[in-house]
Specification:
Blueprint (H helix, E strand, L loop, with lengths): L19 H10 L3 H117 L5 H8 L10 H11 L36 H15 L3 H10 L6
Helix pairs in contact: 3-5, 4-6
């Protein structure tokens, strides 16, 4: 049977001395505490130096960046100012163009309104003139109708009204009036007992007046129309007819 030998030293066994070779290995393989502290001090110095140098570099870099930033900021400010000036100029030009366009538009509208008002005025004037003419025409027609209806009592008014229809002006009225005073005294029933001449113009024979209308015996207007046409065809005017009437004895025309 094999003899038992303990693998581990007893717990309370005395510590073994390290051999010289072991101490040497320890010194070579692991730095002692003092050496570690020195290294740490050296490392701290180097780091401090490094940090100090880095701070200087950082300050220099900061100055450089600040200079670039300042230059960039100035250029940007100039650019922004130039842009602002350009935008303001563009806006001013646009506003000016809009103002000009608005003024032109307002001017065109005013001109159109003025033309429209003028056309309306001309149209209103023409309409008023037409209405006035129509009213005058209606009044003249009504007056004509009244005079004709009253011709038996006032044949002279009927004759004066009918004269323009045969081209005789107001200057011929006095001659016509005297001529027919001498012939019939403006009596639509006057009849010459010796010749048979009849009516206001003393038509011979009286039946000639039937070419105007069949009521020649009783209608002064029919007699006057026939007499004015006869004077126009035979003498040209009442004054010419009167001149011939006065030159003859006994009087006739």
């Amino acid at each position: 049977m094999a003899r038992y030998s303990a693998r581990h030293a007893p717990r309370h066994a005395a510590p073994r001395r390290a051999s010289a070779s072991h101490a040497a290995r320890t010194a070579l393989g692991r730095p002692v505490l003092a050496t570690g502290i020195a290294a740490a001090v050296l490392s701290t110095g180097a780091l401090a130096a490094s940090v100090s140098g880095g701070t200087a570099s950082a300050e220099t870099l900061t100055f450089a960046v600040d200079g670039v930033t300042s230059s960039t900021s100035t250029e940007q400010s100039k650019t922004e100012q130039a842009d602002a000036v350009r935008v303001a100029a563009d806006r001013s030009a646009t506003n000016a163009q809009r103002a000009v366009a608005a003024a032109r538009s307002a001017q065109r509208e005013q001109l159109a309104a003025a033309r429209s008002a003028q056309r309306a005025k001309v149209k209103a004037a023409a309409l008023a003139k037409a209405r006035k003419a129509a009213a005058e025409k209606a009044a003249a027609a009504a007056e004509r109708k009244r005079i004709i209806a009253n011709a038996q009592r006032d044949p002279k008014s009927a004759a004066r009204m009918l004269m323009p229809d045969y081209g005789f002006g107001p200057g011929q009225w006095s001659c016509l009036e005297r001529l027919w005073i001498g012939e019939s005294g403006w009596n639509y029933r006057a009849e010459n007992s010796s010749s048979g001449a009849y009516g206001i113009p003393q038509s011979l024979p009286g039946s000639k007046m039937g070419s105007v209308a069949g009521d020649w015996r009783t209608n002064p207007v029919t007699q006057i129309k026939w007499g004015l046409n006869y004077i126009k065809l035979s003498y040209g005017s009442p004054c010419n007819a009167l001149g011939q009437w006065n030159s003859r004895s006994p009087h006739w025309y």
